[in-house]
Amino acid sequence: MFRLYDSLLSGNCWKVRILLSQLNLEYERITLDLVRGDTQQPDFERISRFSRVPTLVLEDGRPIVESGAILMHLAEGTRFLPGDRHARTEVLSWLFFEQADLQKAIAYPRVYNLRGQASQMAGEIAYRQKDGYSALQKLENWIGNRDWLVGNGYTIADAAVFAYVSLAAEGGYQMERYPGILRWLDDVRSTDGWVPLIEGTAPSR
Ligand SMILES: N[C@@H](CCC(=O)N[C@@H](CS)C(=O)NCC(=O)O)C(=O)O
């Protein structure tokens, strides 16, 4: 069975759990406490070379780090990753764009808000949001006249970009500016096997 090291509120971990569920794969879930410093413990550092979650341990014991790499590995040979070379490369483009332009721009303001540090970190939040709004506008321009990010169906590109973009309001982003994104987020939530960030809760909007 796969083993997934994750944390409760991480969007990077959530995208992996969404795909594991959509592929109907069983896995052991080990939820680390980041505030307590679980990722810095020597036992975990031996498993995860970047000392971060998500880390997926395969059935043969080999670990995979980086959420995008985990998604690529799990989706290989399934309908969630196209076989066509150009389409696969388009999927990769979205995985890179999500990590470079969206993820931190959303995650940092979100964490400051969740930890009640919004006023203390106002300058940093504004700096991150400037980049984040620019990336969200690029996403809106693309998805505003398409159903899915790549080709005609849902792929891991959608799962990867969905996670943090759907949490952007928690980072103080005014998402009503982006009707195309909001429609697409709902479409992702409606895909078979989709799971919420926290089990048993309604999707947050
Ligand atoms: N690029 C990485 C980012 C992973 C990441 O930032 N993980 C955070 C939680 S979202 C983490 O483990 N932080 C704990 C730490 O850095 O000690 C990915 O996509 O997997």
Pick out its properties:
four-stranded mixed beta sheet; 205 residues; Glutathione S-transferase Yfyf (Class Pi), Chain A, domain 2; binds glutathione; alpha+beta; 2 domains; Glutaredoxin
CATH architecture of the largest domain: Up-down Bundle
Q: Average pLDDT, to the nearest integer?
A: 97
Order of adjacent strands in the largest pleated sheet: 2-1-3-4
Structural class: alpha+beta
Q: What percent of residues adopt helix (DSSP H or I)?
A: 40-55%
Q: Under the CATH scheme, which class of the largest domain?
A: Mainly Alpha
Total helices: the number is 7
How many strand segments? 4
Largest sheet: 4 strands, mixed
General form: globular
Strand content: 5-15%
Which molecules are bound in this entry?
glutathione
Distance between the termini: 33 Å
Radius of gyration: 17 Å
Number of domain modules: 2
Write the layout of secondary structure elements.
Elements: E1 2-7, H1 11-22, E2 27-32, H2 42-47, E3 55-57, E4 63-65, H3 67-75, H4 85-114, H5 122-143, H6 156-166, H7 179-189
Parallel strand pairs: 1-2
Antiparallel strand pairs: 1-3, 3-4
The protein binds glutathione.
The site of glutathione has 13 residues, from helix 3.
